[in-house]
Design a protein that fits this description.
The complex is a heterodimer of chains A (about 625) and B (about 210).
Chain A (H helix, E strand, L loop, with lengths): L1 H20 L4 H30 L9 H35 L8 H24 L23 H29 L12 H32 L13 H35 L6 H14 L15 H29 L8 H22 L3 H7 L3 H31 L5 H27 L16 H31 L37 H11 L24 H15 L12 H19 L9
Helix pairs in contact in A: 2-3, 2-4, 2-14, 3-5, 3-7, 3-12, 4-5, 4-16, 5-6, 6-7, 6-8, 7-10, 7-12, 8-9, 9-10, 10-12, 10-13, 12-13, 13-14, 16-17
Chain B lengths: L1 H6 L16 H26 L10 H4 L2 H26 L3 H31 L8 H31 L9 H28 L11
Helix pairs in contact in B: 2-6, 2-7, 4-5, 4-7, 5-6, 6-7
Classes of the chains: A mainly alpha (about 625), B mainly alpha (about 210).
Chain lengths: ~625, ~210
C-alpha cells in the first residue's frame, strides 16, 4: 500500500512539474519569474558579500584578485539582468493582465518562451562557475579588456552569449506586453484610465523592445571578435573600442529606466491605496514617465564623460542629463502630493514605498552631481558611483519591488505576509542599506577606486569600509527575516480575502489567489481606480460592499491549452548557444552542436505554429 | 472560429474583445519590424563609422561590383511585387495563383541569396575575409545578417507553399500570408538602404588618407 501511495504521489509530482513546464498561464509564469529571479538576487547578494568580506579590512586575502574580478562582474550582471529585470518581469506577468482586466497576455505561449529562454540565459552564464571560466570583464565588459588577448578563457563568451539569450527573452516579452496593453484592456479602460503601474510597464516594454536590438548588435560584434576573428573593437586593425561603449550605453541608459520605472509604477499604485486618496496629478506622472522614456535615449554619453568626446558632446549630454531629472522630480512631488492630507496607513508595502521615495531622492541627487561633467571627472570609477547606483537600484528598485511583493503577495497566494516581521524587515533593510552604501559616498570622495580587490591602511579607508561591510551583515539578516516571513506566511498566514487593502485596482475585484481564467466576465471600467468607484457607489446606495467575482467552472471559459513547444524551443536555443562554446571541427563546420540547436529551434517554431491554441474538446 | 465560440459557451462571446481592432499578430509584426530597424540601424552605423578606416586592403573600390549587385537588387525588388500578388491571390482564394506567386517570391529570394554566395566567394578569393580588415568585418556582418533575414523569409515562404497543399492557405487565413509579406517587404527595404550605402555610396572607398 505504502509503495503504491508513494508511487502515486511521485506520479502526481511529475505531472505537477510537467504542468509547470508546459504552462502558458501568465500567473504561473509570473511566479516562475519571481522565484527564479529571487534566487538569483540571493546569489548576486552572496557575491556582493564575498566582496564586502574581502574589503572589510585592508590587506585581506579572502579571495584572489582574479576571483574578485569575477565576483564584481557576476554581481553586477546578475543583479541587473537576472534579478531586478526578471523581478520586474514577474510583476509584469502576474499583474498586467489582472490590472487591465484581461484573461491572459496576447501571446501566452510566447510568454512561456520568454521565461524558459530567460532561465536558459541564467543557466548558461552561471555554467561558467562549473567549468571554471567565469566572466571577469566587468558588467559593461569594456572592449578591449573583454577581447581575446586580455581575457583568455571562455568567461566573456559565457557572458556575451548568455546576455544574448537574455536579450531574446526580454525583447520577445517586450513585444508581447506592448500588444497586450494596447489590445487587451477591458472595455472602458482607456489609456488614461490605466493604473500608473501599467503605464510605466508600457513605457518599459517599449524601451525593452527598442533598446535590446542595439545591445544585441554590440554583443554580436563582441562575440564575433572573440570567436570569428573580426576586428570590430581591435585598435591594432583600426577598430575603435569606444564604439562598444556607445552601443552598450545606448542600450544601457534606457536599461536604467527599464529597471526603475516599474518600481516607480508599483509605488504609484501603493501610495494611493494606503493614503486612501487618488494619485495626485495622475496625468503629470504618466507624461513624466513617457518623457523619461523618450529622454532616456539622449543621455547615454554621460557614462563616457572621461572618454574624451570633446567639449560639445560633453556639454550636450550634461544638459540632457540634467533635463531628465525634471520629470523624475515631477514624479517625486506628485507622490508627496498623494500623501498630503491622506489618511495614511503605515502597512509594510507603504513603508517600503515611502522608503523608496526617500532613498531615491538621495540617489537622484548624487546622480545630478555627476551629470555635471567637471564634477564627474572626479567621481568617475570611484565608490561614489557605486554609492549612487546602489541608492537608485537598491534604495529605489529593490525597495519598490519589496513594496510590490508585500502589496500583491495576498493576491498571489491568498495569504497576508506577517505585518510584524514585515516591519522588522523594512526597518532592518533600511538601516542596513544606508550603513552599507552611504559610507561609499565618502570613500569615493576620498579617492577609493571601484574594482580594486584590496587597499593599504595608509589610505584611511579602513573605518568606512568596515562600516559598509557591517551594513552588509545587517542587510543579510533582513533578507533572512523576509524569507522566514514568506515561508511562515505561506504555511500559516492570515487569510487575505479578495481585497485586504481596500485598493482601487481591478485585480482586487476577483478572488485571491485568482482563478485560472482571472475574470469570468470581463469587467467594464467606468473611470480611474475602477474598484473604488464600484465600492463608493455601493456605500452611497447603502448596499453591501461587492464581494469578489463569483467563481465559475473553468471549462466554460476559453483558455489556451498548455504547450511544451515554448520550452522545447528555448532548449533548442540553449543548445544553439552552447554549440558556440564547443569547437568540434567536422569537415568545414566548426560548431556542429550549434547547427543541431538551430534545427531544434526550427522544429520547435514549426510545431508551435501548427499547434492550435485551443484543441477542440469532446470531439 | 465558429466552432471555438460554440465550445466555449456563454463566456465565448467577449473572447474577441480587442481595443484597437488590429489583430494581435499584425500588431506584433509591426512592432517587431520597427525594433528590427534598430538592429539594422546599429549594424549600418557600425559600417558607416568604420567607412574608410581599414588599414589594409582589399578596399571596397578594389572589389565591389556594382553592376552584378544591381541585378540581384532588381530581382529582390521584383520579389516584393510577387509577394503582393501572392497576397492578392490569397484574398481571392485563387489556389493556383497563390502557389505560383509564393514559389516565385521564394525563388527570387533564392536567386538573391545565390548572388550573395557568389559575391562572398569572390571576395574571399580576392583576399577579403571577416578578419582581413574593418571593411571585411563590417561588410560581411551587415550583409550576412541581411542575408540571414532573407533566408528566414525564404524558409517561411516555402513552408507556406507547402501548407497551400494542405488547404491551409486562403482568404480566411490571409493574415498568415500578409504577415510574411510585411516581413518580406521590410527585408527588401532594408536592402535598399544597404545597397545605397554600401555599394552606391561606399563602393568607391579606398583606405585611409596617407598623411605626410
Amino acid at each position: 500500500m505504502a509503495t503504491v501511495a508513494s508511487k502515486q504521489s511521485q506520479n502526481s509530482m511529475l505531472s505537477n512539474i510537467w504542468g509547470w513546464i508546459t504552462t502558458v498561464d501568465h500567473k504561473r509564469i509570473g511566479i516562475l519569474y519571481g522565484v527564479t529571479a529571487f534566487v538569483m538576487f540571493l546569489v548576486a547578494g552572496i557575491e556582493a558579500g564575498i566582496m564586502r568580506w574581502q574589503l572589510s579590512m585592508p590587506g585581506l586575502d579572502v579571495v584572489s584578485p582574479d576571483v574578485y574580478n569575477q565576483m564584481f562582474t557576476m554581481h553586477g550582471t546578475t543583479m541587473v539582468f537576472f534579478a531586478i529585470m526578471p523581478l520586474n518581469a514577474a510583476f509584469f506577468n502576474y499583474i498586467i493582465p489582472l490590472a487591465i482586466g484581461a484573461r491572459d497576455v496576447a501571446f501566452p505561449r510566447l510568454n512561456a518562451f520568454s521565461y524558459w529562454t530567460f532561465l536558459a540565459a541564467v543557466l548558461f552564464m552561471n555554467f561558467g562557475f562549473v567549468v571554471g571560466a567565469v566572466p571577469d570583464g566587468g558588467w559593461f565588459a569594456y572592449a578591449p579588456l573583454s577581447e581575446q588577448p586580455y581575457s583568455t578563457n571562455q568567461g566573456m563568451e559565457f557572458w556575451s552569449i548568455g546576455l544574448m539569450l537574455a536579450a531574446v527573452s526580454s525583447a520577445v516579452a517586450g513585444l508581447n506586453f506592448i500588444v497586450t496593453i494596447v489590445n487587451l484592456r477591458a472595455p472602458g479602460m482607456s489609456l488614461m484610465r490605466m493604473p500608473v503601474f501599467i503605464w510605466m510597464s508600457f513605457v518599459v516594454q517599449i524601451l525593452l523592445a527598442f533598446a535590446i536590438p542595439v545591445i544585441a548588435v554590440g554583443l554580436i560584434e563582441l562575440t564575433m571578435d572573440r570567436l570569428f576573428g573580426t576586428v570590430f573593437f581591435k585598435p591594432s586593425a583600426g577598430g575603435d573600442p569606444i564604439l562598444w561603449q556607445h552601443l552598450f550605453w545606448i542600450f544601457g541608459h534606457p536599461e536604467v529606466y527599464i529597471l526603475i520605472l516599474p518600481p516607480m509604477g508599483i509605488i504609484s499604485d501603493v501610495l494611493p491605496a494606503f493614503s486612501k486618496k487618488p494619485l495626485f496629478g495622475y496625468p503629470f506622472i504618466v507624461f513624466s514617465g513617457i518623457a523619461i522614456g523618450l529622454m532616456g535615449w539622449a543621455v547615454w554619453s554621460h557614462h563616457m564623460f572621461t572618454v574624451g568626446l570633446g567639449p560639445i558632446a560633453v556639454s550636450v549630454f550634461t544638459i540632457t542629463t540634467m533635463l531628465i531629472a525634471v520629470p523624475t522630480g515631477v514624479k517625486i512631488f506628485n507622490w508627496i502630493g498623494t500623501l498630503w492630507g491622506g489618511s495614511i496607513e503605515y502597512k509594510t508595502p507603504m513603508l517600503f514605498a515611502v522608503g523608496f521615495i526617500a532613498m531615491f531622492i538621495i540617489g537622484g541627487l548624487s546622480g545630478v552631481s555627476h551629470a555635471v561633467a567637471p564634477s564627474d571627472y572626479q567621481q568617475q570609477d570611484t565608490y561614489y558611483i557605486i554609492a549612487h547606483i546602489h541608492y537608485v537600484l537598491f534604495g529605489g528598485a529593490i525597495l519598490g519591488i519589496f513594496s510590490g511583493i508585500y502589496f500583491w503577495f495576498p493576491k498571489v497566494t491568498g495569504k497576508l505576509l506577517n505585518e510584524k516581521l514585515g516591519k522588522y524587515h523594512f526597518w532592518i533593510t533600511f538601516v542596513g542599506m544606508n550603513l552599507t552604501f552611504f559610507p561609499m559616498h565618502y570613500l569615493g570622495m576620498n579617492g577609493m577606486p571601484r574594482r580594486i580587490y584590496t587597499y593599504a591602511t595608509e589610505y584611511g579607508w579602513d573605518n568606512l569600509n568596515a562600516l559598509s561591510s557591517f551594513g552588509y551583515v545587517i542587510l543579510f539578516i533582513a533578507m533572512v527575516i523576509f524569507i522566514v516571513n514568506v515561508i511562515t506566511s505561506l504555511k500559516s498566514g492570515e487569510d487575505a480575502g479578495h481585497d485586504p487593502w481596500n485598493a482601487p485596482g481591478l485585480e482586487w475585484t476577483i478572488a485571491s489567489p485568482p482563478p485560472v481564467y482571472n475574470f469570468s466576465d470581463l469587467p467594464v471600467v467606468e473611470g480611474r481606480d475602477p474598484y473604488w468607484i464600484i465600492k463608493r457607489r455601493a456605500i452611497a446606495e447603502g448596499k453591501e460592499l461587492p464581494g469578489p467575482q463569483a467563481l465559475v467552472d473553468p471549462s466554460t471559459v476559453h483558455l489556451p491549452d498548455p504547450s511544451y513547444w515554448p520550452a522545447f524551443t528555448s532548449l533548442g536555443l540553449l543548445i544553439f548557444a552552447t554549440g558556440f562554446m564547443i569547437e568540434i571541427p567536422v569537415w568545414f563546420v566548426k560548431y556542429p552542436i550549434a547547427i543541431v540547436g538551430g534545427l531544434l529551434v526550427f522544429v520547435g517554431i514549426l510545431a508551435w505554429s501548427n499547434e492550435p491554441i485551443t484543441r477542440e474538446k469532446n470531439h | 472560429m465558429a466552432q471555438i465560440a460554440e465550445s466555449t459557451g456563454h463566456h465565448g462571446a467577449e473572447e474577441e474583445h480587442n481595443c484597437t481592432g488590429i489583430d494581435h499578430r499584425k500588431l506584433l509584426m509591426w512592432v517587431f519590424l520597427s525594433t528590427d530597424c534598430l538592429f539594422f540601424g546599429a549594424l549600418i552605423s557600425t559600417y558607416m563609422v568604420y567607412r574608410g578606416q581599414s588599414l589594409v586592403g582589399p578596399y571596397p573600390v578594389d572589389i565591389i561590383n556594382i553592376p552584378i549587385t544591381t541585378i540581384s537588387t532588381f530581382v529582390l525588388l521584383c520579389s516584393s511585387f510577387a509577394m503582393v500578388m501572392a497576397l492578392s491571390n490569397t484574398n481571392r482564394d485563387n489556389l493556383k495563383g497563390i502557389r505560383i506567386w509564393l514559389a516565385g517570391t521564394a525563388i527570387m529570394g533564392m536567386i538573391f541569396i545565390g548572388f550573395q554566395i557568389v559575391e562572398f566567394t569572390e571576395f574571399a578569393m580576392e583576399g577579403l575575409l571577416l578578419s582581413t580588415n574593418l571593411f571585411g568585418t563590417t561588410f560581411f556582418t551587415l550583409t550576412g545578417f541581411h542575408g540571414a533575414h532573407v533566408s528566414i523569409g525564404i524558409v517561411w515562404l516555402w513552408v507556406m507553399f507547402y501548407q497551400s497543399f494542405k488547404g491551409k492557405v486562403g482568404s480566411k487565413t490571409a493574415l498568415n500570408v500578409e504577415l510574411c509579406g510585411l516581413y518580406w517587404h521590410f527585408v527588401d527595404i532594408v536592402w535598399i538602404v544597404i545597397f545605397t550605402l554600401l555599394y552606391l555610396v561606399g563602393g568607391f572607398d579606398a583606405g585611409p588618407p596617407i598623411v605626410g
